[in-house]
Amino acid sequence: MTVVLSPAHVQDIAELRQLYFEVYGHGYPVPLGSDPVVMRRLLTDGTAHWLTARASGGALVGSAVVVTEPGSRIGKLVGLAVHPGHRGGGLASRLTGAVCGEAFGTGRLDSVYATVRVVTAGPQAVVVRNGFRPLGLLPNAVEVDGCETLALFARYADGVLDRRAPVAAVPEGLSALLSAASAGVGIDYADTRSGSSRDAAATAGTAARVREATKATKATRTTGTTGAEPIELIAAPGFVRRRFLELFPQAGDRFFPLHTPNAVLAAADGSFEAYADLDPVAGSCALVAVHPRPAAVAGALEGLMATVTRAGADYAEALLPLADTEALEVFLASGFVPSALYPAMRRIHDRLHDYVVLSRTSRQIDFRTTAVSPLLRPYLGAYLSAWTSTYLPLHEVSR
User: Which residues 6+ apart lie within 8 Å of 311 measured at CB?
Assistant: First the structure.
């Protein structure tokens, strides 16, 4: 059967919503496929590349989108859906290749990433066939049909990986993740040593903050208390966005592509404000930025996590530069686990910088129902190693 790909239009919204319902039922947690207001905005504001697939009779049988944002050279592949009656013929791969080709064809993107469900191996194969490389696993990242783990993949424009800025040293807890990325992406991290920061001026302050975070984390595990002052949650999207732009007026001061904060988590003593993209429907929270700096949350992440969990998010993630040893050590000491490595994620002038995704979940992790492809297995091993060293006593690990 002949299937024709064409750009989506506003008049397609009703059919698109029906398609997403037929593919995902009521469990689809993304407004792109369910909220007509969001769909109309994406179709009219020039930030999305959206393709549909129609069968010879005119029925809409497939959809794929790459969303972008002004000022960011990153896109995200979302909303890939093929009607159950048209699966098995390569339509998902064809849609993915076409929409990514259109997005990269503008010359305004360095990379496109995708978070892929791992309940089956099919979605992983689709993105790999279209040039995506594995970057890591995000355990318990989303609520779809229950709590699901996602895999992170990215596809790069030509020459982007060759312009990465080198990183001299990273915390020891990232060594397994770097090894996995070396295999999965083909990047050589041999010159990046593992260990604490060697910058003498920063080491003392970093060590003190890490000790605070570690003390708070141990207090929670042994006594159930937070070990920190209360965290105030303000969920007022308009106010939060205005306040966020006041504190981070320059685009270079904020970086968490395609995430807009809708809540702020503030320390009662005013020592920090953590801006979050909180999504209770998906059960997730992205820590978009921290003022005055990411390491300011040292000693308070337990309280912050407790507040996020009460707000309906069982999963939280932070995105930090691979070169920011101070912040990485603080989050690692507070129970966040290195989950994915995104090489060449951010362009600054003519160099591209690597970033790390660190995650934490309040639910038990169960990998028994995941279909982890061979390309992702090094990342699974790295995550399990990091989780074990974080949450199991040393005498248990050594058995």
Answer: 233, 235, 263, 278, 280, 285
